[in-house]
Amino acid sequence: MQFNRCNRCGAFFVNSSDVCPNCQPKDNFEMNKLKNFLENSDLNCSMESISYNTGISIKNLDRYFSKDNFVDYKPNTNL
Questions:
Q1: Residue 74 in contact with residue 61, Cβ under 8 Å?
Q2: Which residues contact 44 (CB under 8 A, 6 or more apart)?
Q3: What's the maximum distance between 2 C-alpha atoms anywhere in the chain?
Q4: pLDDT value for 39
Q5: Residue 45, C-beta contacts closer than 8 angstroms, at least 6 positions apart
Q6: Alpha carbon 15 to chain centroid distance?
Q7: Mind listing the pLDDT tens digit for each residue in 3-45?
Q8: CA-CA-CA-CA torsion sign (49, 53, 57, 61)
Q9: Secondary structure of residue 4 in the 3-state scheme
Q10: Long-range CB contacts (< 8 A, 24+ apart) of 15-21?
């Protein structure tokens, strides 16, 4: 059994995800919010601008942009 540490809250949990089961709904909500923002906005924006407009922390934005879900958006943003 391998323990992981949640990237959002720091809690230890047993799962292959990078966030604990308590934080997973928050992550899903923020990823959907980010996708909607990127699809409906000027894609030539900075991380600070994305964070300000979505309310998502830069730490979490970095984590989301490293996932395969957002690989298509990264070249179009000013990151």
A1: no
A2: 76, 77, 78
A3: 45
A4: 86
A5: 53, 77, 78
A6: 18
A7: 899 999 999 999 888 899 999 999 999 999 999 998 888 767 8
A8: negative
A9: strand
A10: 18/63
Write the DSSP symbol of residue 17. S
Q: What is the pTM of this model?
A: 0.82
Task: Please report the sign of the dihedral spanned by the C-alpha atoms of residue 37, residue 42, residue 43, residue 48.
Answer: negative
What is the H or E stretch that residue 13 is in?
strand 12-13
pLDDT digits (tens, 9 = 90+) for 62-76: 899 888 877 776 645
Exposed / middle / buried, residue 7 (Cβ in 10 Å: 0-12, 13-18, 19+): middle
Tokens matching residue 8:
């959002």
